[in-house]
Design goal:
Blueprint (H helix, E strand, L loop, with lengths): L2 H11 L3 H13 L16 E3 L2 E3 L3 E3 L10 H5 L5 E7 L12 E4 L4 E4 L8 H8 L8 E5 L8 H12 L5 E5 L14 H15 L8 E5 L5 H14 L3 E4 L19 E4 L3 H15 L5 E4 L5 H10 L1 E6 L1 H6 L2 H16 L18
Parallel strand pairs: 3-4, 3-13, 4-7, 7-8, 8-9, 9-10, 10-12, 12-13
Antiparallel strand pairs: 1-2, 5-6, 6-11
Helix pairs in contact: 5-6, 6-7, 7-8, 8-9, 9-11
Length: about 350
């Protein structure tokens, strides 16, 4: 990390976390952050659900909720980015404060509650996105909706023409009873509606599902069964956790979803277990606690075909993206792999 990046992060730490987040977005929009071409090469270039990625490291949803910084984020070294979550109607989200830095734990707690400008406004921004680069949209449901399952299909119809993939997010802990949609019957019905809505688009669109880390073995089996039956293109494992085990920071008891370093082991265990259950039938995207090339490599060996991060950027800056991809390439070479695909899931049995 360069000195200028360290100084910028130190300045942001002096601000309320949500204010700091907003300033970081504005700095990207204004071109005040350094550009970095994606680190790529024969080992890192890969295909995910038919999408060509220069490298496997993506930006997780939540950083750019309203699709206001797509171009600069695509120029920050990521292999792909995901914006949102978007809901059919605009909503303010939960009352502030709702974002908390846990610096002693290198973690974050948020309880935003799908605050966003609404699908129609976000669609207008997505229409103006750069043609190059892979951009996905996280689909959400309005808190007051009488048909939350229908909300996902609605956002897909509004925005689907302008993105390269969509993610069904039923795993946020910050919308009451949203996680109930992860149950087998509810999830099957919801995904069937999304797949039907996809038929209205002019192009094939990969559909991903983002799951929680707080799931039992039976839950995972149900998700694997539904994912196969509905023809999902990928599963993102995982969203934030409700667990607070081992935290040191004063803010540790705040309500909301916990992300960052403490999530690494739990999310990787879920990833590995799901990799065993799916046995290569559906690709997995590993998310949760990635803060180094070694941790990225661990996720791949547990079963991830691609990766996402967000919280670590708060503590290590955007330069982390290129550092992880460079280190990942070196680790693959060290172990004699010519391509990332050769390492995917080779340690998955360790998590059963």
């Amino acid at each position: 990390m360069k000195l200028t990046e360290k100084l910028a992060l130190a300045a942001l730490y002096r601000l309320d976390p949500e204010t700091g987040h907003g300033l970081a977005l504005r700095a990207l929009q204004a071109g005040l952050t350094p550009h970095a071409s994606p680190v790529t090469g024969p080992r890192l270039h890969s295909t995910l659900a038919g999408l060509e990625l220069p490298n496997p490291l993506g930006l997780a949803a939540g950083f750019d909720k309203n699709a206001t910084a797509i171009a600069p984020l695509l120029n920050s070294g990521f292999g792909f980015i995901e914006v949102g979550a978007a809901t059919p109607l605009p909503q303010a989200g939960n009352p502030k404060p709702r974002l908390f830095r846990l610096r002693a734990d290198q973690a974050v707690i948020n309880r935003f509650g799908f605050n966003n400008d609404g699908a129609e406004t976000i669609a207008k921004r997505l229409m103006k996105r750069p043609p190059a680069g892979v951009v996905g949209l996280n689909l959400g449901a309005n808190k007051t909706s009488a048909d939350r399952a229908g909300d996902f299909a609605s956002v897909l119809k509004t925005c689907g023409e302008f993105v390269d993939f969509v993610t069904v997010n039923v795993s946020s802990p910050n919308t009451e009873k949203l996680r109930d949609l992860q149950g087998k019957d509810a999830l099957s019905a919801l995904l069937a509606g999304v797949m039907e809505a996809r038929k209205s688009l002019s192009k094939p669109l990969p559909v991903f599902l983002k799951i929680a880390p707080d799931l039992s073995e039976n839950d995972l089996q149900d998700i694997a069964d539904v994912a196969r039956a509905q023809g999902l293109d990928a599963i993102i494992a995982t969203n934030t956790t409700l667990s607070r085990d081992g935290l040191l920071s004063a803010e540790r008891d705040q309500a909301g979803g916990l992300s960052g370093a403490p999530l690494f082991e739990k999310s990787t265990r879920i990833l590995g277990q799901l990799a065993v259950l799916l046995d290569g039938d559906i690709p997995l995207i590993g998310v949760g606690g990635i803060g180094s090339a070694e941790q990225a490599y661990t996720k791949i060996r547990a079963g991830a075909s691609a990766l996402q991060l967000y919280s670590a950027l708060i503590y290590k800056g955007m330069s982390l993206v290129s550092e992880i991809n460079t280190g990942l390439d070196q680790l693959l070479a060290r172990d004699g792999f010519d391509h990332i695909s050769q390492a995917i899931g080779i340690d998955k049995e360790h998590y059963t």
